[in-house]
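I have been asked to look over a protein record a colleague put together. Alongside the sequence sits a line of tokens, each denoting a local backbone shape. Please read both lines and tell me whether the tokens look consistent with the sequence. Take the sequence as given and treat only the tokens as open to question. I have pasted the whole thing underneath without changing anything:
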Amino acid sequence: MNAAPATPTSTTVGAPNLLAAVLGDLFNPFAGNSPNTPTPDSPLSWMLLGVSRRQLGVDSISSQSLLAPADSITYDPQITLLLPEDNGVITGRNTAPTTVNGNPLTYTVVSDPSGGGKVMLNPANGSFTFLPDFSSVQNPTSEETFNVLVAETTPFDAALMGLPLVGSFVPRILVVIHQVPVANVLLAPIIGQSTVAPVVVEVGDLVYDGTTRHPVAFTVKIPSPVDGALISTNYFPATSVVDGADSAPTILNGPGLATAANTDPNSTAIIPNPPPGIVPGLQPLRDAGYNVVTWDPRGEFASGGLLNIDSPAFEGQDVKGIIDWISDPDHVAYTFPAFDNDVTGDPNDASQQYGDADPAIGMVGGSYGGGIQLVTAGIDPRVDVIVPGIAWNNLVDSLYPNQTFKTSYASLLLLGLVSTGARINPALYPAFLLGAFVGILTPSQQALLASSGPDFLTANIDVPTLFIQGIDDGLFPLQQSLNNASSIATPDELIKMIWHCGGHGACFTMTPTQIAEQDQMLNTTTIKELNSVLQNPNNAPNTIPKFQYVDQNGQWYTAVLIPTDNGFYTGSTPVVTDNGAGGRLGIVPLLGGSGPSPLVPLPNSIVFGSEAKRAIDIPLDDGAVGTTVVGAPQLTFDYTGIGTSRSVYAQIVDRNTGLVVGNIVTPIPVTLDGRTHTVDINMEDIVYTYDDIPDDADLELQIVGSATQFLNLTQFGFINVSNVAVSLPTPGSGAGVAEETLDPVMV
């Protein structure tokens, strides 16, 4: 039996953070969130018309509402601790009515739990899950209290909430008003009645039953070994333990940037949001026999310290501190199931060979939660297996490719952090601001970004690793996964890779059903990878294909090599276009360039490439029907020009759909000094299969003067391009490529 779904909320709501309310759901690129369709505009005209007709306001409220007693709103959560095989989480189910006067009630936590616990409250029905603080779990007589504001949502409130842009912060303002004495009474006929209900959680009585201590999920603040910053950490016990043992391996799951730790015991998948997502949620991991530990990274939400973008000197040390904590026998004694201090007991298993198995630890997570896996595995040998999703190898290569700053991604990233109240290393602000305004980073700023790694740590990683990267990821493109895979010390047979449709972007080429099946495959494959290391007493071979990737049609392929392996391209026949084409192009910011995408609402649309109206267009030769391009197109051309621009941009457009392949734009560094120069550069990796539609060309190269991904208002000029040649890589026979029928039920 599972607890009612709980929507995480901030523990307390005080004065509204207007910037957070407006921007919070929009700017979160490091979380891996795909852009969402905007909420339809609220009928503002309807609301104003209603006011003019006195249908809203005091005169329109029914006598029942005006005369209703203050105690007509009740809140009655029945608090229980479900057994671990059901949930192992303290749960409150609201049994009181969720409407009053025909209007729905909303529920908001307005005071922190007295003992340091965390509340995940469903604002629509008042049910919640509760993580007591570790100190409360240790005390048989402990209790924690917090307050919940229960407020009526009137038609007036609903109309305000539906207003474009400003409606997103109306609920926070209403929460504040409902807590102001006198004002809440005077305005009740308009904004609705409210009451603040205290909730008492008898932690000791729930956890302790006579001499028996039941398994329970809890939260704890763990001091960082680097500076003592308190890292808010959460523990969830496995709901099933393999072979009835009293211990289980532990999975560490770090969140995306500007995203709090996952504390929803019913979550099935995360990143992107809304589901489906590419990372297993708490429920499937726990049901597979794993304790799960999540945390708020330093500088964010309930954790202390300053954010340093997964730096091994800071965030990496924080995770080492978490591993130290769960390795401490005193703490193991209070966990159910206990943290497994031996993966299998078999000295020949993979985890014993390629990592210290005390305790047995795997890691999952995407984006920021993917980067921390590589950093942690590079500095702590106690990690046994990792599954980094949409992670990076080097932040300079990712944010400043070819000395061209990704202004749009960086701006959204920074706004996302500001909107969630993150506490950031002050040295990061100048880097983002300079890059955003003039498109450059100083050497010291590049060094600061580079210090986050993990490129200089990957040679220390020697554990089984499954890389998951997105073919539509403009922030951390496919090459980042290849750079990581080619540099880790893990034996080749223990490295796996999946390229899926998505990433820090949107998958425009697959149906919702195909995306759901894909994400289910990614989740089940992740758990299968964890099982092969952490729950494999017989050391059975890992049957996950070496390389899996999907094309623009949703067709999946497997291969026995990855593109960085010797032999992947041996004997291949690249698709080559060398027709001496070219043209002249004026360089003007924004006008006629690539992006924003018309398929995605602002502001997220600015990070996507789109077919340009002003471009040098080069039709590319077709490959044979069924031929799949996998990897980085090689582009060469001669040019001359004058101007201030330091870059032009190249993209490949699918003429069948009008979409930029992978939504990816590659910056091409140029020197516009009037002299003749030659460019020879690898574009960003793509995946594309040629079809049998009769037309002039499936693909077309576009060279453009501006791209919103790299928006720079200081760049002007013109360029004359000639002798363009493009080579599109295709796998060789040694790669062992075969079409795959996706089976989403793999575990």
Summary: Residues 512-534 form the longest helix (23 residues). Residues 82 and 511 are 38 Å apart (CA to CA). Residues 1-69, 344-357 have pLDDT under 50 and may be disordered.
